């Protein structure tokens, strides 16, 4: 299956000389949820803006569904729905009028049943006659998503879609995104919320200072870069870690009751067997142990730190 979006050697340098993107190459598969992670100013929004035709690239080529975004702009843009960070709607229009207008801008015929379905799925139906100015921030965000879906795009870009909304609304949006994916819509998501990517994404890309640091299947990323921690609950608290155990990089809890050992899941040897032997030699006994896999947030922080 050919990718639905192909980005090749894409760069963007602004008039100020700032390099927002540096030779980014990326393929997005049809029907996947792809999460793009990165700190503020990393280049996430610039990348999305170029693909959506809002910003011109300095170098490189992008195709959407086989359509070049420069030569075949209209065909490419019809395939895309965009939910930007900014809430850009006419404050004094109704929800119903706003969503219908968005559909008409793409040359689509009126379809009240479809618009009603979108509004119902976004829990906006009871607000259809309300003016945008009267809605909460979370509701306005839902209207932006409804606008993006009104012309039935095959690809949906969500640029920080749950920024500033409450936890319940975030989970509602996650469920909506999953439903859209099951309907065949390809989702590209940028987010500051690591748990959002961990919860929903099939693949994850990390961008930092305009460079694509890594692109990996989420499960494979967790497997390859995740570390595990072995925590031992001691029978007797320790005042300090014995010198004979210094090579293990152990961490002692504040109360002296727990020892934590971090190890690489991909290493040929984890060192656990040797650690347990040396603990016994040091006459340190434990009553229980537990392991914990490092989170995607920890992996992300490490990746960005390594790229600096």
From TrEMBL:
Cross-referenced CDD domains: ABC_DR_subfamily_A
PANTHER family, per database record: ABC TRANSPORTER ATP-BINDING PROTEIN
Record-given protein name: ABC transporter ATP-binding protein
Transport is among the record's keywords: yes
Gene3D superfamilies per UniProt: P-loop containing nucleotide triphosphate hydrolases
Example of a GO MF term: ATP hydrolysis activity
Keywords of this entry: ATP-binding, Nucleotide-binding, Transport
Domain ABC transporter: 5-234
InterPro entries the record matches: AAA+_ATPase, ABC_transporter-like_ATP-bd, ABC_transporter-like_CS, ABC_transporter_ATP-binding, P-loop_NTPase
Coiled coil start-end: none
SMART domains from the UniProt entry: AAA (SM00382)
Family the UniProt entry places it in: Belongs to the ABC transporter superfamily.
């Amino acid at each position: 299956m050919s990718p639905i979006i192909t980005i090749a050697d894409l760069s963007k340098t602004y008039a100020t000389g700032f390099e927002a993107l540096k030779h980014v190459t990326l393929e997005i598969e049809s029907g996947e949820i792809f999460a793009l992670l990165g700190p503020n100013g990393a280049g996430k929004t610039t990348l999305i803006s170029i693909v959506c035709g809002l910003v011109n690239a300095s170098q490189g080529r992008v195709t959407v569904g086989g359509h070049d975004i420069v030569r075949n702009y209209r065909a490419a843009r019809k395939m895309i729905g965009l939910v930007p960070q900014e809430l850009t709607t006419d404050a004094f229009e109704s929800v119903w009028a706003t969503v219908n207008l968005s559909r008409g801008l793409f040359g689509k015929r009126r379809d009240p049943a479809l618009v009603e379905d979108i509004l119902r799925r976004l829990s906006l139906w009871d607000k259809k006659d309300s003016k945008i100015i009267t809605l909460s921030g979370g509701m306005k965000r839902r209207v932006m998503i409804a606008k993006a879906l009104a012309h039935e795009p095959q690809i949906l870009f969500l640029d920080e879609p749950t920024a500033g909304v409450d936890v319940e609304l975030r989970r509602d949006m996650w469920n909506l995104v999953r439903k859209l994916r099951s309907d065949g819509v390809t989702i590209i998501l940028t987010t500051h919320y690591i748990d959002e990517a961990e919860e929903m994404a099939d693949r994850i890309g990390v961008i930092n200072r305009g460079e694509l640091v890594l692109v990996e299947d989420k499960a494979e990323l967790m497997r390859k870069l995740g570390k595990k921690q072995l925590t031992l609950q001691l029978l007797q608290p320790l005042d300090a870690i014995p010198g004979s155990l210094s090579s293990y990089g152990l961490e002692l809890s504040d109360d002296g009751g727990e020892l934590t050992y971090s190890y690489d899941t991909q290493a040929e040897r984890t060192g656990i067997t040797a650690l347990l032997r040396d603990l016994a030699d040091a006459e340190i006994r434990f009553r229980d142990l537990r392991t914990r896999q490092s989170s995607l947030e920890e992996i992300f922080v490490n990746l960005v730190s390594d790229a600096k």
